[in-house]
Amino acid sequence: MDRLEDALREALRREAPPQGFAERVVARNAVLGKKGTWDVLRGWLAPGPAKWAAAAALAIVLLAGIQHTSELRRRARGEAARDQVLTALRITAVKLEQARAKVEKTVRIEALVPGEAGAQLKPSDSF
Amino acid sequence: MTPAATGRADTIAGETFSPDFASLVGQHQSMVYSLALHLLRDPSAAEDAAQDVFLRLHRNLDGLKSDSHVVFWLRQVTCRRAIDGLRRRARAEVSLEETGEPAAPPAEGDPLLTQRLRQLVASLPGHLRSAVVLRYQEDLDPPEIARILELPLRTVRDRLQKALALLREKAGRYLKEV
Predict the structure, then answer these.
(1) What is the pLDDT of residue B11?
(2) Domain residue limits at A35
(3) CB contact under 8 A, B177 and A2
């Protein structure tokens, strides 16, 4: 400890505030009220156990919703693919039926009008 | 009771801390006003700052757990408020270099010495001033100052040493120090 430090303690000692300071503070506080809009908002935004729990629950609901939506989309894509395959199969079946009908018709004509084509046919080739 | 001791009066364990606001203002007004005054150098600005600090205290009372917590909170918020005020204030401060040395050493307890030292402290940069005011007004140790200013202990020690060196340079001969 030296003289400078002692002198600083003396120079920087606490001082009483102006007369009526405490009354002015209390009066000003009464006018402003305990909680303003910002304080209410800040209270809502302030973290707390119940708010953390609510946030966690909300996060779980959101994740479940996202997963459910994703599952629905995946299922819809699967159904669309299945429909496409079925449509393709139906078209193929129709085309095959048309081809079979054409072949039958050709064979019947060849049978009614014997010719080169008919002569070339062997008994085992007939339908 | 020393200024530092007022910050160590904890409530009895287990009791709910529910202080009366008017009592808190009466109890701590001198500390808050003096901190603001020694940091801002302007009685009017100091009163505004001190009032502002107490209004904030009222809004934050729910989060304060004990008397010592209130004192710590008041010191911290007053310092922040005053340092912000210093930064905002546009008026030119008297620099340490601009302040001349006194003509002759005064007698012990001379009010001129007190006035002179206050001028010298007020001429310190804000970051040094806050450390000096907390050290010598509130009689706090460097670790306590570090907690209030949220600074590393080494930084606080460096600031105190630098501030004392600057003050000693100006007031050393005046105080007949080694």
Answers:
(1) 47
(2) 3-125
(3) yes
Fold classified for B1-92? Rna Polymerase Sigma Factor; Chain: A (1.10.1740)
Which of A5, A8, A32 has its CB closest to that of B55?
A32
Query: Helices B142-149 & B126-136, crossing angle to 10 degrees?
Result: 130
Å from A42 to nearest chain B CA? 11
Q: Tell me: the pLDDT tens digits for B17-26?
A: 778 889 999 9
ipTM over 0.90: no
Quick check: A27 contacting B, CB < 8 Å?
no
Number of CB pairs < 8 Å for A and B?
97
CA distance B144 to B121: 20
Map tokens 């302030």 to a residue. Answer: A46
Within 75-104 of B, beta carbons closer than 8 Å to A belong to none
A48-57 pLDDT tens trace:
778 788 889 9
CB nearest A7 (choices: B31, B37, B175): B175
Residue spans of the domains in chain B: they are: 1-92, 106-178
Q: Using CA atoms, how far apart are residues B114 and B70, in angstroms rounded to an integer?
A: 30
d(CA B116, CA B141): 24
Burial of B92 (0-12, 13-18, 19+ CB in 10 A): exposed
Question: With respect to CATH, is domain B106-178 assigned 3.40.640.10?
Answer: no
Number of domains in chain A: 1
**Closest partner residue to B29 among A7, A22, A28, by Cβ?**
A22
Cβ distance of A13 and B137 shorter than 8 Å: yes
Q: Would the pLDDT of B150 be above 60?
A: yes
pLDDT digits (tens, 9 = 90+) for A1-47: 578 888 899 999 999 999 999 999 999 888 876 555 666 666 677 77
